[in-house]
Specification:
Distance between the termini of chain B: 49 Å
Largest interface: A-B, 31 and 34 residues
Structural class of chain B: alpha/beta
Largest sheet of chain A: 4 strands, antiparallel
Radius of gyration of chain A: 13 Å
Strand content of chain B: 15-25%
Order of helices and strands of chain A: EEEEEEEEE
Helix content of chain A: under 10%
CATH class of chain A: Mainly Beta
Helix content of chain B: 25-40%
Radius of gyration of chain B: 21 Å
Distance between the termini of chain A: 40 Å
Number of helices of chain A: 0
Oligomer: heterodimer
Shape of chain A: globular
Shape of chain B: globular
CATH architecture of chain A: Roll
Structural class of chain A: mainly beta
Strand order of the largest sheet of chain A: 1-2-5-8
Number of helices of chain B: 14
Order of helices and strands of chain B: EEEHEHEHEHEEHEHHHHHEEHEEHEHH
Chain lengths: ~100, ~375
Amino acid sequence: MSHDILVVDARDNVATALRPLEKGESLEIEVGDSAIEVTVLEPIPFGHKIALADLEPGEQVLKYGEVIGLATQRIAKGQHVHVHNVKGPETGRDGS
Amino acid sequence: MKFRGYRRSNGGVGVRNHVLVFPTVICAAGVAEKISRAVPGTAYLGHQHGCGHLGEEREHMIRAMTGSCSNPNVAGVLLVGLGCEMLTAELLGEKLREAGQRVETITTQNMQGTADAISKGTELARDLLEEARSAQREPVEASELMVAAKCGASDTLSGLTANPALGMACDILIKEGGSAIFTETPEMLGAEQVLAGRAANDEVRRRIWEITSRTDRKIKALGLDVREAEPGPGNIEAGLTTLAEKSLGAIRKGGTTPIVEVVDYAQRPSTKGLVIMDGPAHDVVSVTGMVAAGAQIVVFTTGIGTPVGSPIAPVIKVSSNSSLYQRWKGNIDVNAGSILDGEENLESMGQRLFEEILEVASGKLTKAEILGHHEFAIHTIAPTV
């Protein structure tokens, strides 16, 4: 398993950095049965997320195999995924 | 899969064989503690309650106290009351006998002062301990186990290593026919949709929305909004982006199976499988509640380190990172940080945790037991009057 980034669930489209990632680095990670190659497009701090696929505005951001938020702008594979380009998926408190 | 446990006459299966000395009210705590100290091998459960409970809290307290004393890990109980309190030894003793628990009672006001109560109580506690010796371990199916899944003093990695690994162990146990229980309702906020989506039926779905929205309202009543405050600046700096992400990391410890029941604090589940207990995130209070609900073992993940144990159930500590494990080897049983070191993956760690659960269930001592960490605290839901 890669020591650089971690994917929890095969459905995830983001991975978590296990060390600070530098711009231009090329990483490979196994997701399910396939390997994904990703080039880091910008510096990403330890514990923060990197996109494993291109995401369109409004597209679901998946971690733990679940929706953790929605992209608020286009996010390219290899970009930093955080509060500047993702908003919470929360809806009504009564489930509506 | 089997472990070696104590089969009780009421049908429960214990993984430990404790004799408790339990004050039914704090006014009897001094007597109870002295009795327990005079009989090494008994466990004293100190608490601040037993009197002045309003309305609903009276039932809540009775449930928490009788639940603690009738956990299958408990072979026998000496209840020590004062006499004029709300929750008397007589009242709790009757409830415990109904549950098929071996119980003796002593009421201090009926004795010739506390010295007499301590002397008589010491004899009763010795008798209970002698009786408990006759219990023998025998092979029992893993389906008899209920594991409490807990996280506390978490870090960025808890949701990535220790919690998912514990979730996998819970999945394996539930596949074997057993149960897992998790709580901390405040840490479910933001993940209600996901939890509700995993409900086994409409009633469970309704209850998940009920407990999460009630907790949300309680926080609002304090003038706070969890959705504006969470994730906090520290969480965001650590890389957590949304409240859903934070809560999803926490609920991963329960695994991925359908949620079959939602119980109140310290309430015994009626169904096998994955159960949610409505309760606070306070570590000791939530562990106490899940053990009172019948969990025989607790698995507790931590990233920063916490020593919390239980006087009734063994607590298995799991670290989320190797640097904590290196510093806290005396407290941590399993290091899920090894996933990041490339030594293990989530699947193998989940399997290893499940095997650890069975070994501890069969008698292997946890680090918290070796160190004598016996924290115990009951949740309160109303002011004491």
